[in-house]
Specification:
37% helix, alpha/beta, globular, 339 residues, single chain
Length: 339
C-alpha cells in the first residue's frame, strides 16, 4: 500500500494552450485541484516553490486556503528552499497552516537548487556567514526551523507586556503539536539523505539526483533510500520514517492522452544541474495501462517508498489533471498493490 499524491510546479504563462494564464489562475486552480483530488480519493496535494519565476512561490497562503476547503487530503510542499527563509517567521506560518488544516501539513524543505536568478536569496536579505556556502546556510536554517518547531520557550518576556504572558520563556505562536514529525527533507545526494535521517526528517527524493555511480536513476534512488533507512535506524528515532519519490506517470487511456504524452521517450538522462555536479534525471512513464504496470513494477525506488508523488501538467487545467490522476488510481495503482 502506498499513499499517492500530486506534485504541481504551478506554472503559468500567457500562452494560448495554457489554462493557467495568470498567477491568479494557478492559485485558484490549485485550490480547486486539491478539492477535486480529495474527492477522487487521492492522498496528497503537494506544491513546488520557486522564486523569481512564473510559478508558485508563497506556499503558506495556498496551503492554508486548501486546508480550509478540504478535510482529509495531506497538503504539502516539495520543496521550500531554506536559503530564502526566515526560520522563525516560517515556524509561525507553518503552525498556522497546520492548525487550519487540522494537522495535515506535510512540509518538504531543502537547501535548494539553482534558481532563476544568481544568488536570489541575497535579494531576500540573506547571505552565508564567513566560511559558509549557501548550502551550509540552507541546512543551518533548516536545523533552526526544526529546533523552534519543538515549542520550547526561548525568548525573554517583557516585564511590562501589553498582554499577560504565561510563566517562563516564550515560544513562537501559534504552535502546532505534531508538525515536527511531518517535516521532510528533499535530498539530491546520498550524504544529505543520511543527514536528513540523523536529524529526524522524512525523506523526499525527486525525479533527479546527483549521479553518484552511473547506474540507472531508479537504482541510485533506491540505494539512497536504503542508506537513509539505515541511518534512521542507527540514529535511534522512535517513530517510523516516511519516504516519498516523485514520478511523471501517464496512463494512456484516451486519444487526448496519446496526443499529449504518447511520444515521450522513456529513458533516463544525464546532465548538469549545477556547473560542477553531474545529475541523473529519471525517465517519464507514459504507456497503455498494462505496459505501464509492467514498467513501474521494475522501479526499485518506488518499491522502497511509502508515498508516490505524481508530477502533473498543471497548465492543462483542473479537469484534465483529475483525469490523469483518476486513470492512475483506476487502471494502475490496484495492479501494483498501491491500493
Amino acid at each position: 500500500m502506498k499513499k499517492i499524491g500530486f506534485l504541481s510546479f504551478g506554472h503559468w504563462s500567457n500562452h494560448p494552450a495554457y489554462q493557467t494564464r495568470t498567477a491568479s489562475d494557478t492559485l485558484l486552480q490549485s485550490i480547486d485541484l486539491a478539492v477535486a483530488a480529495e474527492e477522487i480519493g487521492l492522498d496528497g496535494a503537494y506544491f513546488r516553490v520557486h522564486h523569481f519565476a512564473r510559478q508558485l512561490a508563497s506556499p503558506f497562503p495556498l496551503l492554508s486556503a486548501i486546508g480550509a476547503k478540504t478535510s482529509k487530503i495531506e497538503i504539502g510542499t516539495g520543496v521550500i528552499d531554506m536559503r530564502y527563509e526566515n526560520p522563525l517567521y516560517m515556524v509561525e506560518d507553518a503552525g498556522a497552516a497546520d492548525l487550519i488544516s487540522g494537522g495535515r501539513l506535510q512540509l518538504g524543505i531543502s537547501r535548494g537548487s539553482p534558481e532563476q536568478v544568481i544568488e536570489g536569496w541575497r535579494y531576500f536579505g540573506y547571505k552565508p556567514a564567513e566560511g559558509e556556502t549557501d548550502a551550509d546556510m540552507g541546512r543551518k536554517k533548516a536545523l533552526e526551523f526544526l529546533e523552534k518547531l519543538k515549542g520550547a520557550g526561548f525568548a525573554e518576556p517583557n516585564p511590562y507586556p501589553m498582554f499577560p504572558n504565561p510563566p517562563g520563556l516564550l515560544r513562537l505562536e501559534p504552535h502546532s503539536d505534531g508538525l515536527l514529525e511531518r517535516i521532510w527533507w528533499g535530498a539530491a545526494s546520498n550524504s544529505t539523505a543520511v543527514w536528513a535521517a540523523e536529524n529526524g526528517m522524512n525523506l523526499q527524493s525527486s525525479t533527479l539526483k546527483f549521479d553518484e555511480s552511473g547506474k540507472p536513476f531508479h537504482i541510485q534512488q533506491a540505494e539512497q533510500i536504503r542508506l537513509y533507512k539505515e541511518a534512521w535506524k542507527k540514529a535511534g528515532h522512535r517513530r517510523e520514517p516516511r519516504v516519498s519519490v516523485s514520478r511523471s506517470i501517464f496512463a494512456l487511456v484516451t486519444d487526448q492522452d496519446r496526443d499529449y504524452f504518447g511520444q515521450q521517450k522513456g529513458a533516463d538522462s544525464f546532465g548538469y544541474i549545477e556547473a560542477d555536479k553531474r545529475a541523473v534525471f529519471g525517465k517519464s512513464y507514459a504507456a497503455e495501462p498494462d505496459q505501464l504496470i509492467k514498467e513501474l513494477a521494475q522501479d526499485e525506488a518506488i518499491q522502497e517508498a511509502d508515498t508516490v508523488l505524481l508530477t502533473i501538467p498543471n497548465t492543462l487545467g483542473v479537469d484534465y489533471n483529475i483525469h490523469v490522476l483518476s486513470a492512475i488510481l483506476e487502471y494502475v495503482a490496484p495492479a501494483l498493490g498501491w491500493r
